[in-house]
Structure of DUF1289 domain-containing protein:
Amino acid sequence: MARIESPCIGICSTTLGDQICRGCKRHSDEILNWGRSEAQARESVMQRIEQLTINAVSVYFQLLDKDQLHLQLELHRIRYTKRFAPQCWVVDLLRVGASRIQDIEAYGLTLTDHARGLSPDTGRHNTSSRLLEIIYQKINRTILEETDRLICEKS
C-alpha cells in the first residue's frame, strides 16, 4: 500500500483542543479523516495550506535563494513539507529558529518593506530575533484565521 502524503510535521495542537492544528494547518476533522479521504480531497487541502502560507509569508519575506534556504533547513534538521513552495518552508524555519536567527539573508531570505516597518531599528542585514518571533506569530495567526474562514464558508 502506498504511503499517503500528509502536511503533518509532528506538532499537533488539536490534541490540546485547537480546532485547527497550529502545526499542519488542517482542521481537526480533516486530520481525523485524512486516511479515509479521497485523494482529490486531500490534494485540495494541501493546495489550500500551501496557498494560504505563500500569501501570508510573502507579506513579510522575499525569497532570495531557494537552495540556501533548503540547505539551512537540512543543516539544522528542520522538518518541512518538501513538496510545498519554498515560501512555505519559512514558517517551519521560524517555528524552530526565530529566536536564534541574526541574519535572515544567511537563510536565502530578506524582509519586505512591510516587515521592516514593524521595527524601526531593523537594518538591511541585522534582523532582530524578537522581530522574527513577532512575524512568525502574525503569519501563523493569518493562516489559521483564513483556514477557519474558508472552512466556515464551505460548511
In short: The longest helix spans residues 129-154.
